[in-house]
# Entry
Amino acid sequence: MQEAPAHPVKAPATPQLPSRNRLAGVATMVGSGLSNQTGAAIGALAFPVIGPVGVVAVRQYVAAAVLLAVSRPRLRSFTWRQWWPVLLLAVVFGTMNLSLYSAVDRIGLGLAVTLEFLGPLTIALLATRRRVDVCCALVAAAGVVTLMRPQASTDCLGMGLGLLAAVCWASYILLNHTVGRRVPGAQGSAAAAGVSAVLFLPIGFVVALHHPPTAGAAGCAVAAGVLSSAVPYLADLFTLRRVPPAAFGLFMSVNPVLAAVVGRVVLGQHLGGPEWAGIAAVVGANALSILTSRR
# Structure
């Protein structure tokens, strides 16, 4: 603690972020969300040529290149206590993207991202014991039931892949927390991205051998990696310095809506009234939980 000054001075005003910085942060959040979902949609355009596995492989390579270049982890200094959560994070990172893109291929971008979003929503709701969070959980559950209502045309495998992505995202959050405590800065995340890229090297080789990528497909896959990995990562670093965490979390809950809109514009994937109602229930549950939370 600092000692009081010898002579009384006027207390400084509470620092406020300039309005330009706040506006810049909000604009960056919007751009990051649109970039993330647009990248996923553009990556889906390459599915007919190299499939979801090929697109995910390229995305892992791009994510590793960006994170390793920015963080420059000192891998030789890592102990086993630091390495094992990093290795688990690498497996979860790859599985999360693979299950999500496979779900997008089967049930569309909007529904896949909504189901995946249940992962962080579940973590947030389990972290508190407020009655309002119980209500939020029930609203989110109702939204999921609406989205996954059994019909003759229901793609159960696609829904299951979306839920697997949700489990992976929840695991990703918990593992990132552990890695962040044991490895300084973003070195742990960068190392995990690098390991995941190495694991996908033979997968990418097999895909390229059996399904030679065209220039257009390769370009779409690279664009997906840049727009869905590099841009959001750098944008989040910029945004969190200018926007309160609660506002950041609230905006993140809108991603399923952005995904549905981008899926319709870019991929021509139309959703009916029940699907929009389910998305609104999941987004609303998260928004209500954040808005009513106490610090």
Observations:
- The two ends are 23 Å apart (CA to CA).
- DSSP finds twelve helices and no strands in the chain.
- The first helix runs from residue 19 to 44.
